[in-house]
Protein 1
Amino acid sequence: MNLHEQYRLTRIINACGKMTHLSGAIVLPEIAATARASLDHFFLLDELQARAGETIARLTGAEYGCITACTAAGITLGVAASMTGNDLGKVLQLPDVTGMPARVLIQKGHCVNFGCDITQSIRLAGAEPVEVGVVNRCTEVELRHELQKGEVAAIVHVESHHTVRYGWVALQNVVALAKEFNVPVIVDGAAQDQRARELIGTQADLVLMSAHKYLCSTTGGIVAGRQALVDALYLQNRGIGRAMKAGKEAILGAIAALEYREKQDLQTWTAEQDKKAHLILKRLDDIHGLSLTVDPDPNGCPFSRARLTPDPQITGYSAHTLTAALKAGDPSIITRSHRADEGYLHLDAIEMTLEEIEIVCDRIRQLLR
């Protein structure tokens, strides 16, 4: 079935990575088979979630877990859980936060937009986001000052390339400080599932990850953390979380993806991704005016990306105009252009086949020559 022709959809070569606006990831056959099989049956969703919680605990080292609609849903529900605990009356009261601690601290440099403003995800629960510090500086003194004011429900901490990369308080220090005040820490680790054990190891109370990025599953969010808080988060499904619930295909898809990861040889996978990144460099290394390097993932995930820096005076293209030209073709090639203002773009090869890498490199050669 050719869905692109049937529904008049743009053909895409994904040289950008695991991005929501590109529909997440290609679902691996083993995971797709489980999700497909789920569609033919009925289940008790609470029982499915319990099995998911056991699998998440085994894989991440967390006490427990559950599945939400996505990581953004996990942020809102995690904040809600921090305010209500397991008090159903408070769950039913939200988004009215009368009588509950409702201040949520977040470092200013973590106030990112991942498709929406993260502070909006916090406000959806009825909470008040409190931005601490300035864009390129937040100190433990400032966090402590806000904690001492009281009425703090949680601290939200973001692990992402979107955050300011310097002048901030590292996660392990945030957790240590929060524990002094008995305040939970919620980690937005949407694309950090390969670092799950590391993030849980900081003793953060909740770690939120996407099932549909490097786990290559159907759309869903994975919540891992302290059991009491996970239970409180899941209880939100009887309140504001009803609109953010996960279906059977999301839950069983996530379980299958976690089980696949459990057996995966990550070193071999990393070697395959590095080989593809270097193949890109080899195919483009004779283009005059194009500088090439390989950049490791900024968050420490086990893969690299090819960096392209075109000299506009020689090639006739800037990072911005090259990005636009590649996108305008058929198939449309979507590059990772977060740093185009700094003069370069990345080609993320993880979602590209070897054939697609050849198409992308040929297109670049045609444009720059």
Protein 2
Amino acid sequence: MARSIKKGPYVDEKLLKKIKEMSKGKKKKVIRTWARNSLITPEFVGHTLAVHNGNRFIPIFISENMVGHRLGEFAPTRLFRVHSGDRKK
């Protein structure tokens, strides 16, 4: 379900603050976050974020193609292992 246009896109305020501070400085480091539902904005491009998938943090380098998507889309929470019937062959 989409967010109302009146409210605008949801971006975690603490995460956006960290990105802006890092953009001002020269050092780039990995930012750890639990905000999987946060929208990727153009300010995020070029930074590396470690998104929590429920078990561990998955490092993600943000590119221009990712703008408009959610952070959680790039850190899968479930690991698929093969079906048991396929291993018998």
Protein 3
Amino acid sequence: MFIIGNFIEAIAVVVDYVLWAYIWIIIARAIVSWVSPDPFNPIVRFLHRATEPVLRPIRRRLPDMPIDFSPMIVIIAIIFLQRFLVKTLYQLAGSLG
């Protein structure tokens, strides 16, 4: 059973790294939005394509405000996933290993 435990632990590590990377992508998107970036810049386009599918539904549900709080809400949700899902996967791996 230790092989399954190690596999689940590896999944937990990968999920944790992917969630951290996405947090940094959202932060970069928020910082870029403070300036007037070139919309044809490949980095700006990547940030927009990577974050807009997640931010748009949240933005639609929030009332119109001068400050966009959707990146903060997504980051809080990701932190929740890290604390709940990743920690649960680690504990599951520990109980199997």
Protein 4
Amino acid sequence: MIKRFWYTLLITAIYLIPFNSKGQEYKLSPNAEISLLTCGAGNEYYLSFGHSAIRVCDTSLGIDHVYNYGTFDFGTPNLYLKFALGNLDYMLSVQNYKNFILSYQYEGRWVVEQKLNLTSDERNKLFNLLIENCKKENRYYKYDFFRDNCATRARDIIKKSLNRDFYTNNNTSTTNTYRNLIDLTFREIIYPYTNERLMWWQFGVDALLGMRCDRPVSTADCMFIPFYLQNHLDTTNLCLSSTLILDETKTDNPKSISPVIVFWILCFITCIVTYISIKKNVKIKWFDIPLFSLVGIVGLVVAIMWAFSSHWCVKENLNILWANPIFLLLIFCPKKINKYIIYTLLTCLTIALVNIIIDIQHYNSAVLPIVISLIIRLSHLLYNERRTKKSA
């Protein structure tokens, strides 16, 4: 908690801009430099994709600022709810370069500086665009992980300042590799950053992301990941030089057990429990109630996010087929309608199985054992109901 507190304090400290804003244009001195700063991943899930910021350094004018689009007010009421619903205001803050580097040094994350090869006009245009963005009426924006974040904001403002094409590749030795990387979907791009230490986070995020994330990305689209923006600059003549400012010193989180393993074990236990229930002719509500409750609650979250969140990436989510809020009805509704609920759920689960095969929307690998477990339990409930009717 202390570590997170100090990190939060440092990263959100806003360095006041020593300029007024009455419409005049500002000019940097001829020896001024503007750079893209790319920061390595942190141990928390939301830090695992790195960070981008823009540095403006002009020793003649006493300027050394970092323009950081990745900050927000930690004191915002209902912060987590607003973030989930896509209503949290992110903002452009301006920090002293030394303070910015200090925060990443404290976290043990690497920082690379790419000095931009800009003409004098382009440099001044970019500087004035940044100042314009810093105005109170312009500095806030609605964060969108895939389409509007610290990296895409840096990409767009650099692109806007240029008198040439931002996407032209000049380094042929890296261009082919880069093009291969972008023949991917949004979901596939984020997978490498959720490694064996963040697999449960990956499972949870996969459950919330809809089929929109399974569309191939363009060159511009893939730059929502700071490392891809960094990679792109390396393939163009926009990058004058690249320097490692900070080495990585952080220790990694311990590895976690894979959700795939956990849910296949659950599936095996489900088979055993169901077999015992059939052989001994006993009901096992103690097993079904927690299973259906957890799946139903996940389904409720998926449905709420789809219906009410403004996040682009959570719409059209076929995870609703297996993580279905209708499972909650099996627990709370009268037994008279159970049969119809079970048939509805079995139909949805069958469609989910078909989706796993044809992959309209990519499911996390842990979904298959969950679907099999649910089909087994629902089929057993139908079997019990028919057996009860025959004996009556």
